[in-house]
Design a protein that fits this description.
About 50% of the residues lie in helices and about 15% in strands.
Length: about 290
């Protein structure tokens, strides 16, 4: 997603939680970033705080995230989770004491995103960090409100400089648009820093679903399966009636996935917060539904 679109998104933050798992022989960029940001905070009147924790294993990562979720639920913590590790495009992250798949990271973050009111920003300072989106599914709640990370394998110094600029602006202005602009002020030699929102994920995943499982040809096949099963159970609906019922119910596909993905049952205000996206998707479904 183009970072320029961030201006349409709401965003609140009062804590930056830096989680690091780099080999001990390497420069600890997470610790360096935390020290830099705490220095920025010394003379500012701001509600934002910064923490740094070093972990070794996926188990420790999940424990840190679970603790943040408890603080979000009980104390109103609204964090940015910033991860410093090595990344693998088609797998996930490498911690010192083990690997963790992108989907496992997303699953661990869902309770934290829910507890923080669907307000979690995830920053992945690792090669191919934005590939974490591959762990997102329509059938589960979104792991975060937005994801920020590189699309390629970037040098540690490039990543550190980018995130310094980003967080410095977050601390000073708490304006996501300005922070993204500061981060992207200088062009990278390869790849780019990518910001993608939950709205972008939902739209992309729904369109993919419509092309595949909800395609008119698939609807016809589904109607035939339901028709045959109904006939075997003694139902009297014709094949045409079965197909028409499926078509009639097709717009409800988006409603079900929307409620799950945006956690509407846990966060009712998300129905209004992201309602325009649902209405747009329902319109798209109607336009692609056979008469």
């Amino acid at each position: 997603m183009d970072t320029g679109k961030a201006s349409t998104h709401s965003f609140r933050v009062n804590h930056i939680a830096i989680i690091e798992s780099l080999p001990s022989r390497e420069f600890q960029t997470g610790r360096e970033l935390a020290g830099y940001l705490n220095g920025q905070l010394e003379d500012l009147q701001t509600p934002i705080t910064v923490s740094h924790v070093d972990i070794a294993t996926p188990y420790e990562f999940r424990a840190v995230i679970a603790n943040l979720a408890t603080q979000a639920d009980q104390e109103g913590l609204r964090p940015i989770v910033h991860i410093e590790a090595h990344g693998e495009d088609d797998f996930g992250l490498h911690f010192r004491g083990g690997k963790i798949h992108w989907r496992e990271i997303c699953d661990a973050l869902i309770p934290l995103n829910r507890a923080s009111g669907f307000n979690l920003l995830l920053s992945v300072s690792a090669c191919f960090g934005v590939s974490c989106i591959s762990g997102v599914s329509l059938r589960r709640g979104a792991p975060c409100y937005a994801l920020l990370g590189p699309s390629k394998d970037l040098s540690p110094s490039d990543l550190l400089n980018r995130f310094r600029s980003f967080y410095r602006e977050v601390i000073h202005s708490q304006d996501l648009d300005l922070a993204l602009a500061a981060m992207n002020k200088d062009k990278l030699e390869r790849g780019q820093m990518v910001f993608v929102s939950a709205e972008g994920w939902f739209e992309e995943l729904m369109l993919e679903y419509l092309i595949n499982a909800a395609h008119p040809k698939e609807l016809k096949a589904a109607a035939m399966r339901i028709f045959r099963k109904s006939r075997s159970e003694g139902a009297t609906l014709t094949l045409g009636e079965t197909k028409r019922q499926l078509v009639k119910n097709r717009p409800q596909i988006a409603q079900g996935y929307f409620a799950e993905f945006f956690m509407v049952h846990h966060i009712p205000e998300n129905a209004q917060r992201f309602g325009a996206l649902l209405r747009a998707m329902e319109t798209t479904i109607k336009q692609t539904t056979p008469s």
